[in-house]
Design goal:
The chain has six helices and 42 strands. It has a single domain, classed as Beta Barrel (Maltoporin, Chain A), CATH 2.40.170.20. It is globular, with a radius of gyration of 26 Å. The relative contact order is 0.13. It has a 22-stranded antiparallel beta barrel. About 5% of the residues lie in helices and about 55% in strands.
């Protein structure tokens, strides 16, 4: 029988059934289900010692034939070809459309990614600075945007060539799934790939339909969206537009956002597929910045006075479009894509006027126009070799961006927060060129995979504001990174794997801009390099549960860390060695009476392994990396009544304390635990489908720090999370 996917997992068809013969077998007491016999020999080898241990821990493990489960989604992350997650030697999770839209506003990726182990996603309640996302600690230092994690949307990078990305540009309304890859296999995506988050939107298909939705909630938040999709004469189309607005939980945190997307798909032949996708993103947002501990305790909604004095805020206009073509030639296939876009940003910071005699002060307003583009191609070949299947991939990626960057004083006379005198004028260029090759051999019981990627990223600055000196110059970084992995099928329902890789993380433009002497551009920052090790277990427990377990260690040299942060401007330096060790576990279950559950746990011990000196003083070996919780736990229990369409769920999220700076001496952000509750009804009346929901977050009204700004100046580290909030929504879909 086909078993529905547990919440958060994408229900995918079984890949290449291994036999047409089926028999009924009793696997556990009082539990029967249909199994598929392997078309190869039933394994006759004696169980390994580990199998005995596993069998003792999980009595339903070690089934003698492969179960026909659908707790196994199809992904392209890691191997770059379609692959079921159970047989992929990597820590990878699929967040499907059901969880992305699980009674949520579909505004922030944090709504969906909270259930993924190894990923820490903090909603900063600050739309001017985007979400704070880290993968096994990579990216936790980011003061704004996403660093250390590769972001991709429908095959088009949402990360710039220097490694900085904006997850806010993800259009969650039409997302079909989000794939989250951690560990050594993420390194095959090159620079800044401490993890990979890929979003995929659904193709237009079937009879045309239109859908409209509206949600509203606490703090005068609302969002409206409208979608049309379908397929006409072989042309699939998806058109979506939405508007979002909120007054924000904290003072001075109002935001407005408009998003739109168009996706067209066409098959010129049975073996070819052409896809065009275009997105626009416009946002204006106040910036509440961080608050001191005393200010947070006095009033969690409050902001520090400089944010009000300078009216800190940010405006973004972002547009991009891309074209991809994929063609299959028997067992070979070729993929080609190209994209281009434009981004304009104006940001008002709370940086005071420069002291007299400091000619390098570049003002408190950042204003730039960016043109970016890229192209990639890859070839995939499939062959029979040595009794198994060999899959090879060879590809090339090229990306570039050009910024026309200006800086202005953020005052005129005694008036603060207005555009004043020009203090900076330059053209900033960054380009990356990567070549990679991957191979995987899959046999009866063993799978071996490996890859090699050569990454090169080059920065160039042309300074046209010469009255304060010439900052023109260039710097480039280059690295070749290998990956290796092996998987062993202990039984048809238990896979064990090991993997290792070398990683590479070059500084971003944002990290180079002010990190030189006297706040100038730094040409001396070095890239950090890392060595990743991972071992894992993937198992089906009985017929209704899947267990994923990963244990990892990451050794990093020349770690890029925050040196100082003041008024929205952050400088960086290279530290010594760091060490990350951890465990990730996820259990998805389908119970009787239409109950389902998910548990996801992360243990991360991230420390400086070598002492160094920063602007904060001596950082001792053994200090914990700031911004990284040691323990994170997510749990959900959901129930659905098939006849009425009513569903309900309770969620729990717990995180341990978080250090806020490198010395580990400042007030930590305390640990917390919150609970959420949601209800909804999904009904269909002929060609009309209706959905409605009501959601309560933080139902016990706990007060806690939701995120921290690592190393912030004046001890303004803390960003408060809301107390009890509500959200209600309704949508209607009509199919012609």
């Amino acid at each position: 029988m086909a078993i529905a996917a547990a919440p958060g997992l994408r229900a995918a068809p079984i890949i290449e059934p291994r036999s047409t013969a089926t028999v009924d077998r009793e696997i556990c007491p009082k539990m029967k289900f249909r199994i598929n016999l392997n078309k190869t020999k039933i394994m006759r080898q004696n169980p390994k010692r580990l199998a005995v241990i596993l069998a003792a821990a999980f009595p339903c493990l070690g089934v003698a034939a492969e179960t026909a489960l659908t707790l196994d989604a199809v992904v392209v992350s890691g191997s770059r070809v379609e692959h079921n997650t159970f047989d992929l030697p990597a820590a990878v999770d699929v967040v499907d459309a059901a969880r992305i839209g699980a009674d949520q506003a579909r505004v922030n990726a944090s709504e969906a990614l909270a259930a993924v182990p190894g990923i820490t996603v903090q909603n900063r309640q600050n739309y001017a600075q985007d979400l704070q996302i880290s993968s096994r600690g990579f990216g936790a230092r980011s003061a704004f945007g996403v660093r250390g994690i590769r972001l991709v949307a429908d095959g088009i990078p949402a990360s710039m060539p220097d490694g900085q990305g904006q997850v806010a540009t993800f259009n969650l309304d039409r997302a079909e799934r989000i794939e989250v890859l951690r560990g050594p296999m993420a390194v095959v995506y090159g620079n800044h790939a401490g993890g990979v988050i890929q979003m995929f939107t659904a193709d237009g298909s079937g009879r045309p339909s239109v859908e409209g939705g509206f949600v509203a909630g606490s703090d005068n938040m609302w969002k409206a969206d409208l979608t049309a999709q379908g397929e006409v004469d072989g042309l699939g189309y998806v058109i979506d537009a939405s508007r979002f607005a909120t007054d924000g939980y904290r003072d001075h945190s109002k935001a407005e956002r408009d998003q739109a997307m168009v996706k067209l798909t066409y098959r010129p032949s049975q073996d070819g597929k052409l896809t065009f996708i275009a997105n626009s993103f416009k946002q204006t947002a106040d910036d509440p910045q961080g608050q001191t501990w005393a200010g947070y305790q006095a009033d969690p909604r409050s902001v520090a006075q400089p944010a009000l004095d300078y009216n800190t805020r940010k405006r973004i206009d972002h547009m991009q479009g891309g074209l991809t073509y994929e063609h299959r030639f028997g067992d070979q296939s070729v993929f080609v894509s190209a994209y281009a876009g434009q981004r304009s940003t104006t940001q008002y910071q709370s940086i005071p006027p420069g002291p007299q005699g400091n000619p390098k002060h570049s003002g408190g307003i950042i204003d730039f126009d960016r043109d970016f583009a890229g192209a990639s191609t890859r070839w995939v070949g499939r062959f029979q070799l040595a009794g198994g299947k060999l899959t090879t991939t060879v590809g090339v990626d090229y990306e570039q961006s050009v910024d026309q960057r200006r800086g202005y004083e953020n005052f005129v006379g005694a008036t603060l927060g207005v555009m004043g005198t020009l203090r900076r004028l330059e053209e900033d260029r960054v380009a990356s060129f990567d070549q990679y090759a991957q191979a995987e051999w899959q046999g009866e019981r063993w799978t071996f995979s490996g890859g090699l990627r050569h990454s090169q990223v080059a920065f160039d600055v042309e300074d046209a504001y010469l009255s304060n000196g010439n900052d023109s110059g260039s710097v480039s970084y280059e690295k070749t990174t290998p990956t290796l992995a092996a998987m062993f099928r202990l039984t048809p329902t238990v896979n064990l794997y090991v993997s290792a890789a070398r990683g590479f993380e070059a500084p971003t433009f944002g990290e180079l801009f002010y990190s030189g002497p006297g706040g100038t551009f730094s040409y001396d920052l070095k890239p950090s390099t890392s060595t990743h090790y991972e071992t894992g277990l993937k198992a089906f427990v009985g017929s209704n549960t899947r267990l994923d377990l990963a244990v990892f260690q990451i050794e990093t040299e020349d770690e890029l860390v925050v040196d100082s942060s003041l008024g929205g401007r952050t400088t960086y330096r290279n530290a010594g060695q760091t060490l990350r060790r951890g465990i990730e576990a996820a259990i998805d279950s389908r119970w009787a009476n239409n109950l389902s559950s998910r548990l996801a746990y992360t243990l991360l011990d991230a420390r400086y392994d070598e002492a160094f000196t920063s602007s904060s003083g001596l950082i001792n070996a053994g200090n914990r990396l700031p911004g990284v919780p040691a323990h994170t736990l997510f749990g959900e229990l959901a129930w659905k009544h098939p006849a009425s369409g009513f569903h309900a769920a309770v969620e729990g999220i717990a995180r341990s304390k978080v250090y806020v700076e490198d010395t580990n001496t400042k007030q930590v952000a305390p640990g917390y635990a919150i609970a959420n509750l949601r209800f909804g009804i999904d009904r269909k009346y002929g060609d009309v489908s209706l959905r409605s929901f009501l959601r309560f977050d933080n139902i016990f009204d706990r007060q806690y720090v939701g995120s921290v700004i690592v190393g912030a100046g004046f001890d303004r580290f803390y960003e408060a999370a809301p107390g009890r909030t509500w959200l209600a929504g309704v949508s209607a879909r009509y199919q012609f």
